[in-house]
Structure formats: structure tokens, C-alpha cells
Design goal:
By secondary structure, this protein is an alpha/beta fold. It has two domains: about 45 residues, no CATH class; about 270 residues, Vaccinia Virus protein VP39 (Rossmann fold, 3-Layer(aba) Sandwich), CATH 3.40.50.150. The chain is about 45% helix and about 15% strand. Strands 3-2-1-4-5-7-6 form a seven-stranded mixed β-sheet.
């Protein structure tokens, strides 16, 4: 497969520079154009993203599943909620021998089939179809090549069960899955209560769920890609925690704005919470003045510094 990273880096730099110049010339913020320019800048990290997805995200999910279920992956029935455009974690569980299902609100299929793009257009619109085509051509070959290299064996895309479905109203029988996994998806779910209830329903009596959630009050929680990696690269244009302040640079993505406390209250109604961990970010950028300003809006210091919440949940059904 062709390594597109150097080429993509040049495209990203060109798009960001061109967008800045155009914004200045017309005297207004071209937020949609900037979003796509920043997406190029994000996806040019193909190798890094692929290694993170395989080693950290999938590796952590596999360790959690095998530790808590105490059975080989080949005996597991796995559900991923919000598998995303790459469906990487579903693909890796499937390639490891698990009976795997992935669900998402977007229609996702592998390969360059005209029927696929037509289906995406019908279900998710022209913009999604075009961005998917562009990503498939520019980014995906290098991305999957790196994932496979990290995985150490051939990825088995054939017969992977990917379905378009609302997680708050799943079309599965009770007690269908041993392991439910989700990464950076719950912040985009409007009805978290119903989704948690549905996960509890489809889990077996000994089932386990592992959920990792990007938290809205954090520095990167507004999902502005200029703050995607705040401890490595800080935006000179978008103010820190802008989404909690004046929101001068809103993003084109739905966020439910829940805090870690909100999530935990919901999960405790439906599960036993057996693990709870946080990843922190932005400590050096949270000045005393900024903390005071945001505390008045109801956010704690921990809310502002906790980038993500990871929980491991056990079913409350009989049998454990």
C-alpha cells in the first residue's frame, strides 16, 4: 500500500493556510472550511492514530474483556457501539475470532463500491458520501496497513456484521452479548439513559461493558480539532475552553454536554461500576482567572481537567 502521510501533510498545511487567508479576505470565519482543513491536519497522523487504535484502544478493550469474562476471545459475543467510519475495534475483535457486531448511526462498508456510496448518500447525505470517498482514497489504505502491521496478522473484513442502528433502541434480543464496548461515542448520544438501559438489557448475566467517554467540560471536550491534542499543540486562534465561555468557534457536531458525575449517576442505575478512571489534560493552561470564571458556571477543577472517563460495568442480573 502507498504511504500517503508526507503528501497528506502538505495538503493539510496548504488547506489551513489557504483557509486562513480566505477568512481574512472576506472578513468572516469560514468555520466549515476550517473544520475540513483541521480534519486533514488530524488525519495526516495516520500512523499514530492507527497505532493508538490497535495498541491502546483495542489492546485495552481485549484485556478488559478477557480479565472480566475469563474466557478466550473466540468464545465471546462482542458488541461495539458507535464503531465509526473505520470500524477498527469491531474489525480487530472479528479478526481475533470473536462473534462481533458493530452498530452506528452512519452506514459503513469496506471497499470502493458505487452501491456503498449511493447508500451513504441516501442515508447520511451528499456531504458524508463525498467525505467518505475522499477518506477512502487518501487515508484508509495507509491507516489499515498500519493497523494490520500492529495487529501482526491479516485483518478479516469479510463477514463482519456492521449495522446501522440507534443505540437507544437496539434490535437485539435480551442477553445477546458478553462484552459491550464503546470509545469516544457517548458524548454524542442524546439519550444516554435509554442507551444504558439497552446495554444492560442485551448483556448476558455475566456480561461486561467497557465505555470510554470524552468529557464535554474538558479543554478538548468541545471537539474543536485545534484543541484535539492540547498538551502537544495549542491553538493560537481558538481561546482555551472557548466552548464553555463565549463559544466563538462552535463545531459542527452534536454534544450532550454531560459531566462525569452525570454519566456515573446514570450508569449506577443500571450497572455495578467496578472500574472508573480518568485521563487528565490542560493543567498548565488552566490559570487561576480562567478557573474562577468557569467555576462560576458550575464546573469543578476536575471537570475542566478530565479529558475522558473510562468505566467498566458489570451486569446487575442474576448469575455473577
Amino acid at each position: 500500500m502507498v504511504d500517503n502521510e508526507p503528501f497528506l501533510a502538505k495538503i493539510a498545511s496548504f488547506m489551513i493556510t489557504a483557509t486562513k487567508r480566505y477568512s481574512a479576505s472576506v472578513g468572516r470565519d469560514t468555520s466549515k472550511a476550517r473544520t475540513y482543513a483541521n480534519l486533514f491536519g488530524y488525519f495526516k497522523r495516520n500512523r499514530w492514530i492507527a497505532r493508538r487504535d490497535c495498541n491502546q484502544v483495542f489492546g485495552g478493550a481485549l484485556k478488559t474483556a478477557t480479565t472480566h469474562l475469563k474466557k478466550p476471545v473466540s468464545d465471546m459475543r462482542v458488541l461495539e457501539i458507535g464503531h465509526g467510519q473505520h470500524a477498527t475495534i469491531s474489525l480487530l475483535f472479528h479478526s481475533s475470532g470473536a462473534k462481533t457486531t458493530g452498530i452506528d448511526m452512519d452506514y459503513v462498508r469496506f471497499g470502493f463500491s458505487p452501491k456503498t456510496y449511493w447508500r451513504i448518500f441516501k442515508l447520511n447525505g451528499l456531504e458524508r458520501a463525498l467525505t467518505t470517498l475522499g477518506r477512502n482514497i487518501l487515508f484508509d489504505p495507509g491507516y489499515y496497513n498500519e493497523v494490520q502491521k500492529c495487529f501482526g496478522k491479516t485483518l478479516q473484513k469479510r463477514d463482519l456484521n456492521l449495522r446501522r442502528m440507534n443505540a437507544a433502541d437496539m434490535d437485539f434480543a435480551d442477553n445477546t452479548f458478553d462484552f459491550v464496548f464503546s470509545f469516544a461515542v457517548f458524548e454524542h448520544i442524546a439519550d444516554v439513559e435509554s442507551t444504558a438501559k439497552e446495554i444492560a438489557r442485551v448483556l448476558t448475566s455475566d456480561g461486561v461493558a467497557s465505555l470510554s467517554i470524552d468529557l464535554f467540560p474538558s479543554l478538548s471536550g468541545g471537539h474543536n480539532l485545534e484543541w484535539a491534542f492540547p498538551d502537544d499543540a495549542q491553538s493560537k486562534r481558538v481561546p482555551a475552553w472557548d466552548h464553555l465561555r463565549d463559544n466563538l468557534y462552535p463545531t459542527h457536531v452534536y454534544l450532550n454536554k454531560l459531566t462525569a458525575t452525570d454519566y456515573l449517576e446514570i450508569f449506577k442505575r443500571h450497572f455495578d461500576v467496578v472500574e472508573c478512571a480518568y485521563i487528565l489534560e490542560g493543567r498548565s493552561l488552566l490559570t487561576a482567572e480562567l478557573e474562577q470564571e468557569l467555576t462560576k458556571k458550575g464546573y469543578t477543577r476536575h471537570d475542566l481537567l478530565a479529558r475522558s472517563l473510562r468505566v467498566v460495568l458489570h451486569s446487575k442480573k442474576q448469575g455473577r
